[in-house]
Design goal:
By secondary structure, this protein is α/β, with parallel strands linked by helices. The chain has a domain of 233 residues: TIM Barrel (Alpha-Beta Barrel), CATH 3.20.20. It contains 15 helices and 9 strands. The strands form 2 sheets. It has a 7-stranded parallel beta sheet. The structure holds coproporphyrinogen III (CP3). The site of coproporphyrinogen III has 21 residues, from strand 3.
Length: 338
C-alpha cells in the first residue's frame, strides 16, 4: 500500500506532498452521475458494493494518495433511532428534532447492526485499495446542529437557543453524541480504516468562548480516545479559534483558505497540517489555480508535515480534468532548496 499519506499524518516529511480531496467522490464526476441516475444518495450509501465502487472512482481517475469512505456524516443518526432523508435540491432532513432537554429521550444507544452496510463497504474496500482508506464522522457539535435544526441552516438559531437556554441539557446532548461517535469510529477502525477525519463543519459559528465550553472538551475526549490510527480534525471558518485548535492534539489539523497556511505553520508549530486551497479556484484558469496551489505548497513548507487538500469539499461545477492536473501539479512540485 502507498504509505505517503500516512507518513505525513504521522508528522514525517515526505518526498512529495500527498494529496486527496474532501468530497472527491461526487456529482462533479461523470462516473458518479451514471450511478446516481439509477439510485438516490441514501441508497448508494446503504449498498456496500455501490459505496465501495464510488469510493474507488476518484482514486482511479485522479490518482490521489488516499480514499475516503463514501457515506455521510448523518448516517449514524439512523443507528440512534432518528430519521434521515435527503430531499432532492433541498438537502438533508433529520427528525424528530432535539431542541430541549425533554427531547433527549429520542436518542437511543448507537446500534451498529443497523448500519452494518458502512462496515461492509470498508471490508470490500480494504481488499481492493492500494492507498489508505479514511473513515470519518461528524464532530458531536456539527452532528448536533443537524439534529437540532433538522437540516442545513444559516443562522443556527435553534442550536444557540438550546445552548444558551439549557446549557446543561446541551452538554448532555454533546456527551451522548461523543460516546456514540467514539463507538462508531472505533468500529470503523476495527474494520480496517487507516485514518479517521472528524468533520466539524460548523465549529466556526461559535465564539472562542463558547467553542471552549461546548465543543473543545468533547473533541479533545474523542481525539484522546482514538489512539490507534491518525486523527484529522477538519473545521472551517475557524481562524479565530486557532489557539483552541492548537490544544486539541489532533494528529493533523485541516484548515481552510481563510487563513494563510504560512501563518498557520507559524502559529501551530509542530502540527501536521492539511489544506487549504479555496475549492472555487478550480473554477478559474489553470494559471490562477496553479499560482495559488504553489502558494499553499510553499506556505506549508515550515509545517511539520503537509497533506495537500482543499479548504472544503470539491464543488459540483469542478472539471475532473483540472482536478487531475492539480493532483499532478502537487505530486511533481519541486521545492527550491534553502
Ligand atoms: O468526501 C467524500 O468524498 C466522502 C463522502 C462524504 C459525503 N458527505 C458525501 C455526500 C462526506 C465525508 C460527507 C460529509 C458531510 N455531509 C458533511 C461534512 C463536510 C462538509 O461538506 O462540510 C456535511 C455537512 C454533510 C451533510 C450533507 N450531505 C449535506 C448538507 C448534503 C447536501 C448538500 C449537497 O451537496 O447536496 C449532503 C449530500 C452529500 N454528501 C452528497 C455527497 C456526495 C451529494 C449527494 C448527491 O446528491 O449525490
Amino acid at each position: 500500500m502507498k504509505e505517503v499519506f500516512l507518513k505525513a499524518c504521522r508528522g514525517i516529511r515526505t518526498d512529495y506532498t500527498p494529496v486527496w480531496f474532501m468530497r472527491q467522490a461526487g456529482r462533479y464526476m461523470p462516473e458518479y452521475q451514471k450511478i446516481r441516475q439509477k439510485y438516490d444518495f441514501l441508497t448508494m450509501c446503504k449498498t456496500p458494493e455501490i459505496a465501495a465502487e464510488v469510493t474507488l472512482q476518484p482514486v482511479k481517475v485522479l490518482g490521489v494518495d488516499a480514499a475516503i469512505l463514501f457515506s455521510d456524516i448523518l448516517i449514524p443518526l439512523e443507528a440512534i433511532g432518528l430519521k434521515v432523508e435527503f430531499i432532492e435540491e433541498k438537502g438533508p432532513r433529520v427528525s424528530p428534532n432535539i431542541r430541549t432537554v425533554a427531547d433527549l429521550k429520542f436518542i437511543g444507544e448507537l446500534n451498529l447492526e443497523k448500519i452494518d452496510f458502512v462496515f461492509e463497504a470498508i471490508r470490500i474496500l480494504i481488499k481492493e485499495l492500494n492507498v489508505p482508506l479514511i473513515g470519518f464522522a461528524a464532530s458531536p457539535f456539527t452532528l448536533a446542529t443537524y439534529v437540532i435544526e433538522g437540516g442545513s441552516t444559516k443562522e443556527f438559531l435553534n442550536t444557540k437557543r438550546f445552548m444558551f437556554l439549557e446549557p446543561e441539557g446541551f452538554h448532555k446532548l454533546m456527551s451522548l453524541f461523543t460516546s456514540a461517535t467514539l463507538k462508531y469510529l472505533n468500529e470503523q477502525i476495527k474494520t480496517g480504516v487507516h485514518a479517521v477525519q472528524i468533520f466539524d463543519t460548523w465549529a466556526g459559528i461559535l465564539s472562542p468562548f463558547d467553542y471552549e465550553i461546548f465543543v473543545k472538551p468533547y473533541v479533545k475526549r474523542l481525539i484522546e480516545s482514538l489512539k490507534t490510527v491518525p486523527v484529522i480534525y477538519f473545521s472551517s471558518n475557524t481562524a479565530g479559534l486557532i489557539n483552541h485548535l492548537k490544544e486539541l492534539n489532533s494528529d493533523v489539523l485541516s484548515i481552510d483558505w481563510r487563513i494563510d497556511i504560512k501563518d498557520a505553520t507559524d502559529l501551530l508549530k509542530d502540527q501536521p497540517l492539511q489544506g487549504n486551497l479555496d475549492p472555487l479556484t478550480l473554477l478559474g484558469t489553470e494559471e490562477e489555480l496553479f499560482k495559488r496551489a504553489e502558494k499553499v505548497l510553499i506556505g506549508a513548507r515550515g509545517a511539520k508535515s503537509h497533506i495537500f487538500n482543499l479548504g472544503h469539499g470539491v464543488n459540483i461545477n469542478t472539471s475532473v480534468d483540472k482536478l487531475k492536473k492539480l493532483v499532478d501539479f502537487v505530486h511533481e512540485f519541486k521545492f527550491m532548496e534553502g
